[in-house]
Amino acid sequence: MTAAAFAALVQAQRTGAGRWKARCPAHNDRSPSLSIRAGDDGRVLVLCRAGCALDSILSALKLAKRDLFAGPPPSPEQTAAIQAARKPTSKPQGQNGRRGWPRWTAWKSCKPW
């Protein structure tokens, strides 16, 4: 099952590219607290912001965990490629790896008061 198919199943509203929000079927929900997202490897990522467990959400929909996957599990090569894509390729700007903060070395040359 794809994330779009799962979102259609729970009548979710689209909130962005590959993201939806819906009322959780596991509890009496007044406002949308169920977040649905398409994972990098074809999984459907489901999170209830009210704290419902995944098993209770799926049992309310009469689904199993295996239904959240589009196909067979990824191969080790695909898993390595996904993890490599998630790692940042560049370091933060600035010296010392801090977000643009300069390295303050002038204080060493200051004379005591």
What is the molecular shape? globular
Chain oligomer state: single chain
Give the integer mean of the pLDDT values.
Answer: 79
Helix content: 10-25%
Measured on Cα atoms, how large is the radius of gyration?
22 Å
Strand order of the largest sheet: 1-2-3-4
**Biggest beta sheet attributes:** 4 strands, antiparallel
Helix-strand sequence: HEEEEHH
* Tally of strands: 4
In short:
This protein has 113 residues and is an alpha+beta fold. Helix content is 22%, strand content 16%.
Overall description:
It contains 3 helices and 4 strands. With 113 residues, it is α+β, with helices and mostly antiparallel strands. It has helices spanning 3-9, 54-60, 76-86, and strands spanning 13-16, 19-22, 34-38, 44-48. A 4-stranded antiparallel beta sheet has the order 1-2-3-4, covered by helices on one side. The mean pLDDT is 79. The N and C termini lie far apart (71 Å). It is globular, with a radius of gyration of 22 Å. A hairpin with a 2-residue loop joins strand 1 and strand 2 (19-22).
